[in-house]
Design brief:
The complex is a heterodimer. Chain A contains 8 helices and 6 strands, in the order ββαααααβαβββαα. By secondary structure, chain A is an alpha+beta fold. A 6-stranded mixed β-sheet of chain A has the order 1-2-6-5-4-3. The longest helix of chain A is centred in the middle third of the chain and has 23 residues, at 60-82. The radius of gyration of chain A is 17 Å and the shape is globular. Chain B is mainly alpha-helical. Chain B folds into 2 domains: 19-91, Orthogonal Bundle (434 Repressor (Amino-terminal Domain)); 104-144, no CATH class. Chain B is built from 6 helices and 4 strands, in the order αααααββββα. In chain B, the strands form 2 sheets. Chain B has a two-stranded antiparallel sheet with strand order 1-4. Chain B has a two-stranded antiparallel sheet with strand order 2-3. Chain B is flat, with a radius of gyration of 27 Å. The chains are: A alpha+beta, B mainly alpha. At the A-B interface, strand 1, strand 2, helix 1, helix 2 and helix 4 of A face helix 1 and helix 2 of B.
């Protein structure tokens, strides 16, 4: 596993490139979200979830077109943020990242985070680990059609990626907050 | 973050930048045809599903490699008119349409049209296509070609 800068020289936003993969996760996910054949395969495989009342009877074709359109706007939105002055950029990014689950809200370090897509009812998700105050590492992303990530293989895979990235990061050192807690315990 | 963790993470940062920005810039420069290519791919995939055909079947029908069809179906291929026409024919679907060519002429004076009885005092546009003035055509079609 190696890390790749998403755009920031200050290294506040990184992504992961897994061994054996051609592209980093951030590039790969936007490529998938704009790949019609990938989306067609995804939505036909998950048509049962797409037919849930929450998604308002959207057809496979509509789902493909909407996903691509939203992904392109989402990428453009992130690109625009990246062009802002440094302080503003970091603060805008921090606002985008939400806790992955209520259990993560109170964790002092190594928080699992998610970013929602742009639509009010969006199924696009990016996932990241927050380290310290200003660093986020994007581990992947997916189309989430169900309530819980444990319900489907593709969302469970994203949970596994978050876990393995967090475990790997822990081998590289401790966060500030951990150090403080260790000192208090001593 | 402790200096040790920061140093270790920075040591693992690839020298090669992420390609996402390059992809975003490519889209911005080519969005006109990329958007059309994506919609064409959606339509082909939908037709394949309805007709229970595989990508390989389509490749054989239009005599190209399955790899090429796979590229087309990603919706990121700059397709030639020749390929589009071959796909349209082999799947009996329409992928692109060109608006029909129209010539219009302004005729001064009043005009009466039977059986719909439309009259204008000042000017009236005529469309060259017979169908637009055909007695079987409906009123809304006729209105579309009349611009006051």
């Amino acid at each position: 596993m190696e890390f790749v800068r998403i755009f920031d020289d200050q290294d506040s936003l990184l992504t992961v490139k897994y061994d054996g993969q051609d592209e980093d996760e951030f590039t790969k996910i936007f490529d998938q979200w704009t790949d019609i054949e990938y989306l067609d395969n995804f939505f036909t495989t998950n048509e049962v979830d797409l037919n849930r009342p929450f998604w308002e009877e959207v057809t496979v074709e509509q789902a493909i077109i909407e996903t691509r359109r939203e992904a392109l706007k989402f990428r453009e939105h992130l690109k625009r943020i990246s062009l802002r002055p440094e302080n503003e950029r970091i603060s805008l990014f921090k606002r985008l990242f939400k806790p992955l689950s209520p259990a993560e809200v109170d964790l002092p370090f190594w928080n699992k985070k998610k970013i929602y897509g742009l639509r009010k009812k969006t199924w696009l998700r990016l996932y990241a680990i927050k380290i310290g105050d200003d660093m986020f590492i994007v581990t992947g992303g997916t189309i989430k059609l169900t309530d819980n990530m444990e319900e489907r293989t593709h969302t469970k895979d994203e949970l596994r990626k978050l876990e393995s990235c967090r475990d790997y990061l822990k081998t590289l050192g401790t966060s500030d907050e951990e150090s403080i807690i260790e000192l208090i315990e001593l | 973050m402790t200096p040790e963790l920061s140093k270790n993470i920075k040591g693992l940062i690839s020298k090669k930048p992420s390609n996402w920005l390059k992809d975003a810039e490519f889209y911005e420069l080519n969005k006109d045809w990329l958007d059309k290519s994506a919609l064409i791919a959606v339509k082909i995939l939908s037709a394949l599903r309805i007709q229970s055909l595989s990508q390989k079947d389509l490749a054989e029908r239009i005599d190209v490699s399955p790899q090429y069809i796979n590229k087309v179906l990603k919706g990121k291929e700059n397709l030639s008119l020749s390929t589009i026409c071959k796909i349209e024919k082999s799947l009996s679907i329409s992928l692109i349409a060109v608006p029909s060519f129209q010539i219009s002429q302004v005729i001064e004076g009043s005009f009466e049209y039977f059986p719909y009885i439309i009259s204008r005092n000042n000017s009236q546009l005529f469309a060259s296509e017979k169908s637009e003035y055909d007695s079987n055509s409906n009123f809304s079609n006729l209105e579309e070609c009349i611009v006051a």
